[in-house]
Amino acid sequence: MQPQFRSIIIGKLLASIVSGFLLVGLPLYLLGLGMSIPEIGMIFGIASALYSIISFYLGSLSEHSGRLKFVLIAICIMAIAVLMFSSLPLFAISTAVILFTIAKILLNMSESVIWVISQIRIADLSKRSNLGGSFGSLLGSSSSGYGIGMLLGAFLLKLISFQAILFILLAFLAASFMFYRNSGDIRKKKQQGRIFSVSKILKTPYAYKLVLAFNTLLLFEIYIVDIFGLPLYEKEALGLSSAQAFLVLGLAWLFYGLFSGYGGKLYDRHGIKVYIIASIGISLSSVLMALTKNPVLFSLALIASYIMFSFSDPVRFAIMGFVSEKNRGMLMSFFSLFAGIAGSIVFISFGKILEFLDFNFIFFLRAVTEVISVFMIAYIIKVIRSTKAAAR
User: Fold this and answer.
1) How far apart are CA 335 and CA 351, in angstroms?
2) Residues near 151 by Cβ (< 8 Å), separated by ≥ 6?
3) Cβ of 276: how many Cβ atoms within 10 Å?
4) Which residues make Cβ contacts (< 8 Å) with residue 85, sequence separation at least 6?
5) DSSP calls for 162-214
6) What angle (nearest 5°) sits at the alpha carbon of residue 335, between those of residues 140 and 53?
7) Is the pLDDT of residue 150 over 80?
8) What pLDDT score was predicted for residue 178?
9) How far, in Å, are 130, 220, 317 from residue 185 at the CA level?
10) Is 159 helix (H, G, I), strand (E, B) or coil?
11) Domains in the chain and their CATH numbers?
12) pLDDT, tens only, 199-238
């Protein structure tokens, strides 16, 4: 493993420990303040919309100005957001909500920039033949970090306050900064040009547009289940305590991280068969999660679905990297832009949807989305192969 590659992997692991704790902790913290799910969704939606635009511009700028400076600045901004979260109890609820929204925007923006730049750098350092394994390693480090952060929450919340844990997390960000500082940068930087225009999206190849649609479809289910729904569902529908929610999700993310590297290598050897089998497994486990109210059975199905994701997600990211070869900074950032838009729609509409449907609908939605994605990825691979054949 190249030293720069290793620095990115370890740096992302450390930053993800902070993200993992906050992913579960922030929604539960807001519930504890007496906020409703629609109110929480509105805050998350505003933050998602703003960060998607900002992170897109920064990712695109990295093609001209280099990757390194942006990821280091993002880690510093993430630390500021953590400090803002820790100060919320000092203010009245109305002021705290405003500060929380600002901090959430900063957090989402910094997380997105760290993630996008990490993906771009992994693509920079990887050969086409091992993109699956490379992105699997990145996913493994990121997901393991999320799992560790959640497990830390399960353990530490019994001993110290939420705010005290936030101060501990700052040490992980400091260590992440040091590793990313040694992660290198692109050698050849492009001349400055217009960062964004609709024509740039329209001029992308057909295969890229298909992958963009495919990725955005899957992100709707990821945001509605993993990023927002799961912690609230475990608390509200299953009656788990905050520590129990941290424990279950932490184990799921940790298993996801442990198997992601292997999942990426399997894709490099066997192609999209890996994705198809994994997606079917995700669909079946999601249906089981929707039907059961038994916390133990639900938790086992959740862990099983995350293990399946460790085999399907490296395929998704490898294909994203493959179709973004010519202008990684801009094209990989388009994925981030559309991700933020998807997240914003989900967060803002989530409370309204719950007025008409049971909470468990999110798992049925995941099952259907995974089945649709199987047909989409099969068509994408067909288009990529025909494009290659025409180019010869």
Assistant:
1) 26
2) 246, 247, 250, 251, 254
3) 17
4) 22, 26, 100, 103, 107, 163, 166
5) HHHHHHHHHHHHHHHHHHHHTS---SSPPPP-----HHHHHTS-HHHHHHHHH
6) 115
7) yes
8) 93
9) 20, 32, 21
10) coil
11) 3-185+198-391 (1.20.1250.20)
12) 566 677 788 788 878 877 887 777 778 777 787 788 778 8
For 244-253, give one letter per residue: b (16+ CB within 10 A) or e.
bbbbbbbbbb
How many Å from the N-terminal Cα to the C-terminal Cα in the chain? 33
Mapped to the 3 state alphabet, what secondary structure does 80-149 carry?
Answer: HHHHHHHCHHHCCHHHHHHHHHHHHHHHHHHHHHHHHHHHHHHHHHCCHHHHHHHHHHHHHHHHHHHHHH
Q: Pick the closest to residue 138 from 25, 12, 38, 224 (CA basis).
A: 12
- Give the distance from CA 208 to its chain's centroid: 20
* The residue to which tokens 């025409």 are assigned: 390
**Per-residue tokens: 368:** 């259907």
Closest residue by Cα to residue 330 from 43, 67, 103: 67
Length reported for the chain = 392
DSSP 276-329: HHHHHHHHHHHHHHHH---HHHHHHHHHHHHHHHHHHHHHHHHHHHHHTGGGHH
CB 148 within 8 A of CB 264: no
Q: Is-above-0.85 flag for pTM? A: no
Structure tokens at 45: 């939606």
Q: Pick from 266, 129, 113: which is nearest to 121 by CA? A: 113
Model pLDDT for residues 15-33, shown as the tens digit of each residue? 999 998 998 888 877 777 7
- Quickly tell me which residue has 């298909």 as its tokens: 210
| 66 Cα distance to chain centroid | 23
CA distance 64 to 79: 26
392, exposed or middle or buried, with CB in 10 Å at 0-12, 13-18, 19+?
A: exposed
CA separation for the pair 392, 376 (Å, rounded): 25
